[in-house]
Amino acid sequence: MAKAPQNAISPTREENFPEWYQQVVRAADLAENSEVRGCMVIKPWGYGVWELLQQQLDTIFKETGHKNAYFPLLIPVSYLEKEAAHVEGFATECAVVTHHRLELQDGKMVPSGTLTEPYVIRPTSETIIGAAFARWVHSYRDLPLLINQWANVMRWEMRPRLFLRTAEFLWQEGHTAHETAEEAMEETKRMHEVYERFLTDHLAVPVIAGEKTEAERFPGALNTFTVEAMVQDRKAIQAGTSHFLGQNFSKAAGIEFESREGKRELAWTTSWGVSTRLIGTLLMAHSDDDGFVLPPRVAPTQVVILPVTPSPSTKSPFSPPARNWRRD
């Protein structure tokens, strides 16, 4: 009796889905754990997927009027303190820089030079981008302000999983400021729809789009809209979010402008983002027990199979030689 063919990945999805996921990442040579706990090395094949995701999303963002900028990795603690709900939501995930040099003592490098004010390695950039917006916005003519940043962030993670949950990860974060609440909400929903279409049309991943409950909202937001990707273990992965921030961050950062009526008003702001979690989402949605499967739009290497079939009147060079058969 012939043996059943062996699967390339062991265990299979049905046997142990979390371990199957880890094995697919390793087998596809996408990433590996680094020496820094909770952080990963994204290898060339995995980074190639991210580059394609980035290029396609960046094109969409620019088509919708957004421009790219870059903001500091280090955020003064005092900036976070200005928005109480925000800092409370991220307080347990923050990595804090407290010294600015190292000194050799007894053969060991010891931190020294205590900073006057500690810095947080950005878990997200609302506060420091808000400070920039406060410098840039003076009049209603400066609005809307539509900015996107491609960057890395750090959120201390106790139970890391490659691509899905790591202490440091890559992402984009959009930040916008508007003249009215209606315009800001329209922007929030527009980018929510962009994420929904991108996952559906570019990544071929089924999603459920909707609004988060009050308890699940982004810290400091009035509304959070999400796209929840459906994967093969019948669970959902939060694949992208878009937040209506109201005037909370404008009030904290002082993002004010002169209105059409000549009055001083606070801007209405939004933020939205997706991350390298999309690669883990792709893996969980499309891969099988033989390994990683990618939709063509985000595959770093494209393979095209072109069948060549000769017409009946054309003799193929691969045809066997003609034989004259006779029966004696």
Brief account:
With 328 residues, this protein is α+β, with helices and mostly antiparallel strands.
Descriptive labels:
14 strands; three-stranded antiparallel β-sheet; 328 residues; 8 helices; alpha+beta; single chain; BirA Bifunctional Protein, domain 2
Describe the structure.
- The protein is of the alpha+beta class and 328 residues long.
- The protein has a single domain, classed as Bira Bifunctional Protein, Domain 2 (BirA Bifunctional Protein, domain 2).
- It is built from 8 helices and 14 strands.
- The chain has a 7-stranded mixed sheet, sandwiched between helices.
- The longest helix has 22 residues.
- The chain is globular, with a radius of gyration of 26 Å.
- The relative contact order is 0.16.
- The mean pLDDT is 92.
How are the SSEs placed, and which strands pair?
Layout: H1 17-27, E1 31-33, E2 40-42, H2 44-63, E3 67-68, E4 74-76, H3 77-81, H4 84-90, E5 96-105, E6 108-121, H5 126-136, E7 145-154, E8 168-178, H6 181-202, E9 207-211, E10 223-230, E11 236-246, H7 248-253, E12 256-258, E13 264-266, E14 268-275, H8 277-286
Parallel strand pairs: 3-7
Antiparallel strand pairs: 1-2, 4-6, 5-6, 7-8, 8-14, 9-10, 10-11, 11-14, 12-13
